[in-house]
Every structure is written in C-alpha cells, then in structure tokens.
Design goal:
The complex is a heterodimer of chains A (319) and B (280).
Chain A: H1 15-25, E1 33-37, H2 41-44, H3 47-52, E2 57-59, H4 64-76, E3 80-86, H5 87-93, H6 95-103, E4 110-114, H7 132-137, E5 143-145, H8 150-162, E6 167-170, E7 192-195, E8 200-204, H9 208-221, E9 226-230, E10 233-235, H10 239-249, E11 252-255, H11 264-275, E12 280-283, H12 295-301, H13 306-318
Parallel strand pairs in A: 1-2, 1-3, 3-4, 4-6, 5-6, 8-9, 8-11, 11-12
Antiparallel strand pairs in A: 5-10, 7-9
Helix pairs in contact in A: 1-8, 4-6, 9-13, 10-11
Chain B: H1 10-31, H2 36-40, H3 43-51, E1 69-72, H4 78-87, H5 93-96, H6 128-141, E2 148-153, H7 160-171, E3 177-183, E4 186-187, E5 190-191, H8 192-195, H9 201-207, E6 211-216, H10 220-232, E7 238-243, H11 251-257, H12 269-278
Parallel strand pairs in B: 1-2, 2-3, 3-7, 6-7
Antiparallel strand pairs in B: 4-5
Helix pairs in contact in B: 1-3, 1-4, 1-12, 3-4, 3-10, 6-7
Classes of the chains: A alpha/beta (319), B alpha/beta (280).
Chain lengths: 319, 280
C-alpha cells in the first residue's frame, strides 16, 4: 500500500522536485541567490535553477568541503548561497566546514540535503542521510526544516530564503502524498495540526507525516482519535504546540525517518521532560544502518510504517 | 570612500614591519599564550599588503564592498593581523593588549562576528582558500575589481580541502585571487618536511593551472615585487610561495631558548624584553 493511501491521500511530487522548481521560480525575486553544487545538481534539482540562471550556478565538483567553504565566502560577500548535495555527503562530509564557515560566523547560507532517510532505496546505506537532522540541530543558530510534501517544500524554500541566517532544508527522493494545498500555511517554527484528536498525539515530519495520517486512519477505526502534528521545523521547535499536545492528549509518539539519536524525537523529548512530562514512544530508524532495497520494502523492514506507529500508540496508551 | 593607501617607502615599510613585530611580542607575552613565532614569519607579507599599497582597505567602513580582502587561513597567526591593524590605526595598543582575555573581541583565532576587520572566522586549518574562492566569485558577479588574498601555512597544505579549492579557483580562472603560502618550515610537532612534506609547492600550484612565484618572504623587496607581479597576471589565480623563517626577527632569542620552532607559546617576560631590544 502506498504512503497516504489509507488516509485517502493522492500521491504527489517528491520534496526535492518541489524545492528545485520553487528555487527557480524565486530566482528573479531573490537576485542574490546563487547555487553551489557538488556535481549532483541533477539529483538535488538545483540544476533547474542553474539552467535558468547560468551565471549564478556554481558546480565545484565532487568536493563537498570546498563547496561549503565557497558558499561561506559568497555569503560573506553578500550572496545567498543555496548549497545542495545528498544529505549524507553535505552534513557528514563537510560538517567541520559547515561549523567553521557557516554556523560559527552565522552566515546566511541555505543547505539543502536531498536523498535523506532510508527511503532513497536501492543505492543503499552509504547514500542515506539518517544523521543529518541531528548534526544540523547541534549547531548554534541553525534553523532545520523537514517538509512533509511538495506543497510545504515549495513554501519552505521561500521561507528559508526570506529567513536571514543558516538553514538546513531536508528533502527526499521519492514521491509523497499531497497533504497540503497551495493555500496551506507554512511558518518556520510553527507546527501544523494536520489531524485533530485528543486521545494521543503523533508528532512527525517529512515522509512520516503521511504515514502518521495512515496510522491515524487505522486508529480511528478502533475508536482512537489521534492528533497528528507536522513538526516541519525541528529547530527552533514549536514548544507551545508540544506542551498543548502533552496537556490535552497526555500521550505522545514521535515518528521520523532518522536515527533515534539527535533527531525530532530527542528534541521533542527534551521539551516534554522540561515542561509537561507524559509517556512517550518513538518510531524511527533506531541505532543502525539500513541497506539496499525498494523504498517501501525498506520502510517496512526498518519499522517506519503505519503499523509501527499504531503499535507505538497502543503501547504509549497502556502506560 | 576608499581611503588613499599610504604607499610607504621601502625603509618605512621595514620600520613598520619592526613595529608590528614588537607589537606581536608584547601582546602575546601579555596574553600568556598564543603563536608569536607563527605570526613573526608572516610580518613582511602582511606589512606589504596593508602599508605597501596592495590591499585597498577602508578604515571608515571595513566591510566596504569595494575593498580588497585578506583572509588569514592560518588563523593562529592572528597576532600579526591585530598588530598590523593597530599600526594602521584601526585599534589602539590598549585594545589589542586584551588579546585572548575573557570578553575581548581579540580572540585567539579570528572571529569575524566580533571584529569587522576579520574577513573570516578561521582556526580550523585548510578552509580559508575556499572562502577566498567564494569572495572572488561574488566580486566577479558584482562587477567589482576587488582582489582577494588568502594566507595559508605550509603545514596547512596537508589539508585536502586546500587542493579542492585550488582546483575550483582554476576552473573559474579567478584572476582576482592570490594564495600566499607562508612556508616557515615548521608545524606543531616539528619540521614540516618531517611531518608531512607537501613540497614542492610552486610546481603543484602550476600543475593546478595557477601562476606561481617563489620568494624569500622575509625580504621586503621580494615581497613587494611578487605582490606587484601577481597583479599583472590577468588570466588565472596566482600563488606566492613565501619562504620564511618561523620567528623571523628574533631568531637569536629562539636559538638561545634552544627551540627554533617555538610553536604556540609566548616569550616569557625576560625573553620578551631581549626580543624587544633586538627589534628596537
């Protein structure tokens, strides 16, 4: 069954495609934007921009450290560089360059990691960014966004260009269900309630929002009304929405396509522990690397499914 | 408004270099830590840039888009930069004497967030040349004739990112970029030739499509000539391999101390006094 099918959602574009199209559309409105690529612009979709604005697209080759440094220099000279690569290569390969040339001096650079999560499929674990959100969140001053569908990825692209300061935008490879319309709100740091409910809250982002809606549909059949929050911004986190969920529903499950360590679950748990402690469960990749395979098969094998969320809800409600 | 650059005579430049050396000794001894020997090797190049008419800078507006840029990639040598900026009137002696003290913006390594005269926050080696490539690309996009200079250490050349940056500068034929390797021959634990010998530098730069010059970087005449010649290269990035001596200017003191590397430590007060006498 496709993601979002149980919730009655229609399959739309991948977030990377929406980002690429949006960036091109915003090119004239944001004349300072330039792209810096590590020779995967046709995968990350920045090539759409670079083709439309050839003198503003720089492909520096398979050299992520230099790619990030060049972006730091461009930003220091007043440009708004959008730097993209696979999430794994961008965050993991060039982490110290991001720290020194972007985070520490607070440069206005936008990092876009595509091919995030295990759902990239057949290319296998070396290409899967599952540490990226934790790494990005660890740096002071960074804003970290994980959009759930094409419409929100499009809005996130504008929002990150309007925001002054370093941003990490996480995109995925596969097509995702349409959760939002062009009129839906998208504000950095403000969670969207995509389904109301008061028995339990499922906090998710990225691809897991569609899966959470599938889980909520299944739960509704058993009489459990789950609230589903799209926590698209992991940093800064919408603490008010979390406190409200903890207060009103008393139980929280966090679902994300990321390692257990350092991701959305860790961030939400920190807020819950500090403000309104309630039982929590977590659905994520855990503490392992995945493998090659088809995307849906991988999500099944590594427990990123509606069934896994339903099981987590059952468990958290029994505590 | 870009200030008229004070084109000093050679003798004046040598006097200025001496004054900068004295400041380096004073502020690092006062701080009780830092890298005076790594700073001293680079004095002639920094002096020529700031006082010899090569680096167009604007004391009224240090971030003037039209300025030339100097990125100190070997950030641990920042005492040379603070001292040169003090000598140029950007900061008072009292200000730079707060080097490395809690609350002071004159940190152990350059912090561009706290000082608008710092073009980059450096200190993790190998990253300055990439930043320079970014500056050079942005200046070209904006139609500015600003030139970007990046100074690296010879030990720093062990970092792979330097070579990535070198290749990308050649790709974009960045004639507005000059890399300066302050080849003082030493790094933290010993002689660079023993730790990781990346020589020869000039032929490697040339193999990457750069123009390269090799000079005695502690001879003001040679530094001036090389910087002037670099400006005449208009079709590719240029490199200056500046062969220097770590601790140049106070070498007899370091010899007496029995440590010609003298890495990452200030002169104690008695040696500092002797050094200052030598530089008077």
């Amino acid at each position: 069954m496709a993601i979002g099918e149980a919730a009655g959602l229609k399959l739309g574009k991948a977030t990377r495609d929406a980002f690429g199209a949006a960036l091109k559309d915003l090119g004239n409105e944001f004349p300072s934007v330039v792209t810096v690529d590590g020779d995967v612009g046709n995968s990350t979709r920045t090539e759409v921009f670079a083709k439309a604005f050839p003198n503003r697209g720089f492909n520096v080759g398979i050299a992520e450290s230099n790619m990030v440094g060049v972006a730091g220099g461009l930003a220091a000279a007043g440009k708004i560089p959008v730097v993209s690569s696979f999430a794994a290569f961008l965050l993991c390969n060039a982490f110290d360059q991001i720290r020194m040339s972007i985070a520490y001096p607070g440069m206005n650079v936008k990092l876009v990691g595509s091919h995030a999560g295990i759902s990239i499929g057949e290319d296998g674990a070396s290409q899967m960014g599952i540490e990226d959100v934790g790494l990005a969140c660890s740096m002071p001053g960074f804003t970290v966004i994980v959009p759930a569908d094409a419409a929100s990825a499009r809005k996130a692209t504008r929002a990150m260009l309007e925001h002054v300061g370093p941003v990490y935008l996480r995109c995925g490879r596969i097509e995702l269900p349409e959760i939002y319309t062009a009129d839906s709100p998208f504000v950095i740091g403000k969670a969207n309630t995509v389904k109301e409910g008061n028995d339990v809250t499922i906090i998710a982002n990225g691809l897991m929002v569609g899966i959470a809606l599938d889980a909520a549909a299944a739960l509704a059949k058993t009489g459990v009304q789950a609230r589903v929050l799209d926590m698209h911004t992991v940093k800064p986190l919408d603490e008010a929405a979390i406190i409200k969920a903890a207060t009103e529903t008393g139980r929280i499950v966090v679902a994300e396509e990321h390692l257990m360590a350092g991701g959305l679950g860790s961030a939400v748990a920190t807020v819950v522990a500090r403000t309104k402690p309630v039982p929590m469960e977590f659905v994520n990749v855990g503490d392992c690397y995945a493998e090659s395979g088809d995307p849906l098969g991988l999500l099944q094998k590594y427990g990123l499914t509606a069934e896994a969320i339903v099981a987590a809800v059952t468990k958290v409600r029994s505590r | 408004m870009v200030a008229d650059v004070n084109k000093q005579t050679l003798d004046q430049l040598k006097d200025t270099a001496k004054a900068i050396r004295r400041l380096i000794i004073k502020i690092t001894t006062e701080a009780g830590s830092g890298h005076p020997s790594s700073s001293l090797s680079a004095v002639e190049v920094v002096t020529a840039l700031y006082f010899g008419g090569f680096l167009r800078h604007n004391i009224q507006n240090p971030r003037d888009p039209k300025r030339d840029r100097f990125i100190l990639s070997k950030g641990h040598a920042v005492p040379v930069l603070y001292s040169a900026l003090c000598q140029a009137g950007y900061y008072t002696f009292e200000q730079i004497m707060t080097l490395r003290k809690l609350g002071s913006p004159f940190e152990g390594h350059p912090n561009m967030k706290r000082l608008d005269t710092m073009e980059a926050s450096t200190g993790s080696l190998g990253q300055g040349l990439s930043l320079g490539v970014g500056h050079a690309l942005a200046c070209r996009l904006d139609g500015l004739d600003a030139h970007t200079y990046v100074m690296m250490g010879d030990g720093e050349m062990g970092e792979g990112q330097v070579w990535e940056a070198m290749a990308s500068a050649e790709k974009y034929k960045l004639q507005n970029l000059t890399a300066i390797v302050d080849q003082n021959g030493f790094q933290q634990t010993g002689a660079t030739k023993d730790v990781l010998d990346m020589k020869p530098f000039a032929s490697k730069f040339e193999a990457f499509g750069w123009h390269a010059q090799v000079i005695n970087g502690n001879k003001m005449e040679e530094v001036i000539a090389a910087l002037a010649h670099a400006k005449t290269v208009t079709d590719r990035p240029t490199a200056i391999i500046s062969q220097t001596q770590k601790g140049f200017g106070i070498l007899p003191i370091l010899e007496t101390a029995g440590d010609l590397n003298y890495h990452g430590k200030p002169l104690p007060k008695d040696l500092a006094e002797k050094a200052l006498a030598l530089l008077s």
